[in-house]
Design brief:
The chain has 326 residues and is an alpha/beta fold. It has a 6-stranded mixed sheet, sandwiched between helices. Strand 1 and strand 2 form a beta hairpin. The longest helix has 25 residues. The protein is globular and about 60 Å long. The relative contact order is 0.17.
Amino acid sequence: MTAPQPFRLVADIGGTRARFGVCEAPGAPPAEVRSLACAAFASLADAARAYLAAIGQPPVEEACVAVAAPVTGGHVRFTNLGWSFRIEELRAVLRLRRLRVVNDFEAQALALPWLVPPELRAVGGGAAEPLAPRVVLGAGTGLGVAALVRAGERWVAVPGEGGHVALSPMDEEEAALLSHLWRRFDHVSAERLLSGPGLQLLWLTLRELRGLPAVAAPEPEEITRRALAVAPPDPVSADTLARFCALLGTVAANLAVTFGARGGVYLGGGIVPALGAWFADSPFRARFERKGRFSAYTAAIPTFVITAASPALRGAAAALDDPAPR
């Protein structure tokens, strides 16, 4: 009898969810995609073994794991999750011949060439230049950032920790907001406000600045629901979401001019895609184009919301075919 064809395991591990899939061959799209709650498992290895058992324990020889953490050596520690692991130990535990570990937004960037128009929702700007650099960022449990640049005949992802750059104010209310937060934090990063926990912090801070009574913050999904509800109106939630989108526009424009991202700026993560058509009318795009002498430059750059399901799994699959030495 012929031995079963080995599969490739791909994973996208965020601060809240662990998404897994398997590819039957190089170039094949991920199948059997499932999302597990990270909190249900003590480690990445436990979550991976649970997933493989759930889909019938297919033979797996290679894997690429995209992680919401810097990948700078043989040991990985998640930024917004209590997991950590040694790459070689994980390879041995999962009995893999080959394991590649990449930053989660490196995988998001590698997925961009594979996305088709129905998986992208355009939000302003001109036409993307096909071979120009691209930027992807996404707010979820944290704020992920990466770029994609052309090198000869191939695309190369440039991972980084751009979510931890200092957040800059663009008007008096944002200056007051940052001044208030600096009393609590010695560094107010973009991720501090542009994330799920950041949405809650922004909601609480706006209430404090307006002299409203101290209360517990709703969950990020509830803030969004209140902000988008037709009635009854919730001014603080509505202002929170609008301010969130404006600040995101500033960060996205900073990345666009830094990388010369005339190939487009792409928005993923869990928060923005869930906003649907409302996001196009939010302050995001107006703020993105507010760049002083470079306003015409950013106005020409298209921005897109990624609506594809689990794009980082496609990027992880592409990473297994990347010929670059690691």
